[in-house]
Amino acid sequence: MAKVHGAKDHRNLCTLFVRCLCAFNAIARVLGGFRVGENEAKKMGERGRISRDANGSIESPSQSSNLNYWEQPFSQPYFDNATRRDVTATVGQMTYLHCRVRNLGDRSVSWIRKRDLHILTVGILTYTNDQRFQSLHSDGSDEWTLRITSPQIKDSGTYECQVSTEPKISQGFQLNVVISKAKIIGNTEMYIRSGSDINLTCVVLETPDPPSFIYWYRDRDVINYSGRGGISVVTEKQTRTSRLLISKAQPPDTGNYTCAPSASDSASVTVHVLNGEHPAAMQHGNSSNSAVTRLLPIFLLFVCHSIQVLLVTDVYVPTRVVKLAR
Fold this sequence. Notes:
Largest sheet: 6 strands, mixed
Structural class: alpha+beta
């Protein structure tokens, strides 16, 4: 009987040991799987493919990516602010307004004149009877350009580049149309002594860009540099100035001199080259002292008259006082 009981106890002990071993293995597998899941989640989280909600639960990659895509600003159209939005144009010279839209997708771009909310273009189609306005766009480009042919002063104002999102987004452009003109420094009529230099300086005003050229005319003919020696022209495009120098002017050099820049109104001055002194307005070279010379005698006459009045007053008053006292 003792041997039977001993055998039963041994089998029971073995059974208990096997069960404990199985339970231990099961717990180890669960714990190992949990660590693997945490490690994988950590790696994916570092790669930005998963995220956790407010309760700490791991979201699926598809849910996280969908949420981030629609929240990211580049998923919607936006304007490139690197383009120039304040444009100055010259009357009659073609000008452009450049609007750059990123991530446009299937939306459309329109140009609208702000002062009357008139739709000028939609896409590349023109929606106005004024054919001076046209939209330019190349396939695959982000740029939508409004071209204005022969702009006038009345075209100055704000123009909006609008994208058909919901709600709509727009960017304003300010257009300033000016009249560019030339000016010759000095009087419009000059008198030069024979043998002196004719020195004329022309300045181009109200121009957004330097002129391509500046021509000088005498009467209706372009000044011929080879026909007569001693003529030189120095033009500085950046400062928008041009200087005409005619050395040792002679009476045949008399005439109407015109400064004619590209894309600007011209300016003229009449030059008289005389053999003798001119009593009214003789100039030596391009001297600006003629006005002072003419006014100097008048000024001296006024000073002499004032001194004379003071001297007479000083003598006369005491004499009168003495007579009254007697």
